[in-house]
Amino acid sequence: MTERFTFTLQATDGKARRGEITMPRGTVRTPAFMPVGTAGTVKAMYLDQVRDLGSDIILGNVYHLMLRPGAERVARLGGLHEFARWPHPILTDSGGFQVMSLAALRKLDERGVTFKSHIDGTEYELTPERSIEIQHLLDSDIQMQLDECIRLPAERAEIERAMELSLRWAERSAKAFGDQPGKAMFGIVQGGDVPDLRIRSAERLAAMDLKGYSIGGLAVGEPQAVMLKTLEETLPVLPEHKPRYLMGVGTPDDLLQSVARGIDMFDCVMPTRAGRHGLAYSCFGKINLRNARHADDHRPLDEASACPAARDYSRAYLHHLVRCNEALGGMLLTWINLAYYQDLMAGMRAAIEAGRFADFKAETEAGWARGDIAPL
Amino acid sequence: MTERFTFTLQATDGKARRGEITMPRGTVRTPAFMPVGTAGTVKAMYLDQVRDLGSDIILGNVYHLMLRPGAERVARLGGLHEFARWPHPILTDSGGFQVMSLAALRKLDERGVTFKSHIDGTEYELTPERSIEIQHLLDSDIQMQLDECIRLPAERAEIERAMELSLRWAERSAKAFGDQPGKAMFGIVQGGDVPDLRIRSAERLAAMDLKGYSIGGLAVGEPQAVMLKTLEETLPVLPEHKPRYLMGVGTPDDLLQSVARGIDMFDCVMPTRAGRHGLAYSCFGKINLRNARHADDHRPLDEASACPAARDYSRAYLHHLVRCNEALGGMLLTWINLAYYQDLMAGMRAAIEAGRFADFKAETEAGWARGDIAPL
């Protein structure tokens, strides 16, 4: 196992990239989807299952973990890998995004952001330095700079102010991170939907020679076309031989379109959250198991799936569990969704290696367009 | 595999009995604990896990299943075993107990009970014949007569009326059940805490020569001593070579005390329900994982357990999951509790075989009395 953090591009097909990130804790095959393990648990899953689905890396949320159980406590308990029993790579966010979306009474200035916990009202301060310190206490393998992410649509001046602040915080984060062999800190490109701001952000971050680059501030309310156009404008500015992580994205279609444009890494709560709400992602598109059409359907969700939850249980049983709000419904559908996401990533990786990504993309889209199998 | 329903007593030790129930779908080693699979799912568990813990049989609730997904639907889908993916024996209750505890606007008369669903207000009728029909539609291996279970304390006249009604319903249930090779219908002894009524109920049921006998109407509010005294008075009246099932019981101590008095089968929601509320049953007694003493405790709940959830995860992590109301907390603690219950049953079976049940009982009680390991 390597002692260094490296990224190797193994193949490209159009703009789609097949790579590998190696770290002391393991290798991440890209394009990669990272299941979200908010509070040290991927909701309703055993992490053994998450691993068995082909997950090389999971994500932890600084905001949730700093509140409960607390970063210093996780450190005393041996770090997040030991705490959650996941010995493989972990990426953490900086906490900034959730502070903006969840916390109360936020006050943001040059120094950082103060906020009150949405759980018990305790006041916390999060600065670029403290965020990196927390991620270090968690023993995170890939850490994120603190940034300011704003919702779209927004005024150019506001987007520019937040982008410039995020660049200054990137400098402070990089300094706080220092030299951690085998680990990486990624800078985050901001700039909303304004092309020249995105390009300026990407250029300035590229000049810092960081180990990887995140694209932040997308999938925050804008149409998919805006997101994809932003990727097309931004990615050419980033260094080719560094991993590119599109934060918080997305639907299976978002993943397919973004890999086609050169993204290497994703995280999103969609597969896990949708699973807890009775929705399944599949090669037939999105399926609502709450729908009465499934009540008497003895067929599995997808008989060709390698996932036991999709292949072995009847749609009628899944429907019943969802209708009854039974825990097993969320467990099985989360399993189904993460399996589908990881199968999609594996399919994309294989297609890029084989130089047939465009065909794979077209076939996958055609499957979604055909929709679900006919009712019984 | 046998085609008949048989019960064989293999060993006794004092009044404790070690037996085997054989049925076409499998063998149940007694004394047996049956995890409760209310609506076709043992809450927060995969049934593979439930099986791996040593469960030979699970319980399904007629009341819940007749409401959702409906008995006729389950039958069309191949029966409850196929529906829930549990090919092993299933015992069903008659629905009567939950009608009394959950349903609205009940009306009980000689014919049966009418009630409105607690879910959507739909009116249903449950008679002894309909209950057996539902259990037949579910393809249940061990079926229960419909009975009237009343809460204690109650007046003698009321207890006697319900007991006599239950006896008449036992006759009707047995007639409705008819001859189902490989399956059984159990009668249910009622009579509250009144010795002569219990004895009359047991005698009259014994005279019907049923395949097994349940003790109902206990653990409904009375002290444990009353329950155990009732068992001591009732069990000698029942035929020795038929299985005896104590319904809805109980704590690990209830199980130990009741096996000592000659009970063969149990079901209870305690291990599953307690697990979802942060409580663990263990050889150290009952442990509340929500308690702050566990917050920094890197030790597992029970390092000697064969259950991965009890052996491999830290108390600090379990505490964190419970505090955050994470699904995995309920999943791990339910697993821990069912593992402990099944380990306790396996321990009792081995002890009876070895003629050292009294020693096993004393050792187990001493472990509970010592309590949890000292805080760090």
UniProtKB/TrEMBL annotation, chains A, B:
GO terms of molecular function: tRNA-guanosine(34) queuine transglycosylase activity
A Pfam family that the UniProt record links to this protein: TGT
Region RNA binding, residue ranges: 248-254, 272-276
Keyword annotations from UniProtKB, A to Z: Glycosyltransferase, Queuosine biosynthesis, Transferase, tRNA processing
Residue stretches making up the tRNA-guanine(15) transglycosylase-like domain: 15-366
Catalytic EC class: transferase
Catalytic activity: 7-aminomethyl-7-carbaguanine + guanosine(34) in tRNA = 7-aminomethyl-7-carbaguanosine(34) in tRNA + guanine
Active site: 93, 267
Enzyme Commission number(s): 2.4.2.29
Role noted for this protein: Catalyzes the base-exchange of a guanine (G) residue with the queuine precursor 7-aminomethyl-7-deazaguanine (PreQ1) at position 34 (anticodon wobble position) in tRNAs with GU(N) anticodons (tRNA-Asp, -Asn, -His and -Tyr). Catalysis occurs through a double-displacement mechanism. The nucleophile active site attacks the C1' of nucleotide 34 to detach the guanine base from the RNA, forming a covalent enzyme-RNA intermediate. The proton acceptor active site deprotonates the incoming PreQ1, allowing a nucleophilic attack on the C1' of the ribose to form the product.
HAMAP family: Q_tRNA_Tgt
Protein name, UniProt field: Queuine tRNA-ribosyltransferase
Native source species: Fulvimarina endophytica
